[in-house]
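To whoever is on call:

I kicked off a structure prediction for a single chain this morning and the downstream step that reads the tokens threw a length-mismatch warning. I double-checked the sequence; it's 118 residues and nothing unusual in it as far as I can see. Pasting both halves so you can look.
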Amino acid sequence: QVQLVESGGGLVQPGGSLRLSCAASGAIFSITDMGWYRQVPGKQRELVATISISTGDTPNVADSVKGRFTISRDPVKNTVYLQMNSLQPEDTALYLCNLLRYTGKEYWGQGTQVTVSS
């Protein structure tokens, strides 16, 4: 199986920055994309950004985070990062890491909480 472990969340003031990490381990093969989603209680899970593990292309970035968040990856470490700048209260959410295989099977981490508040 695949294990995804997120880290880097926390409490930050508006305008601040955080860097999330997601380390993948286990049966790491045939991966097409990894990405970040976020979820607020009572709302639908929202895509934040995805990245191709092989090429580093970022075909999917939410309009709400463009220009503020940057997704990147280290294919040697099987790790994906999310650099979040200019954080706003509306960015408060549980941030979840996702891994997608070419077969269509996907895996989720447990999530890391990001709270933006003064």
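Update from on-call: the warning came from a stale cache, not from the record. Cleared it. Sanity check on the structure: The chain is about 0% helix and 55% strand.
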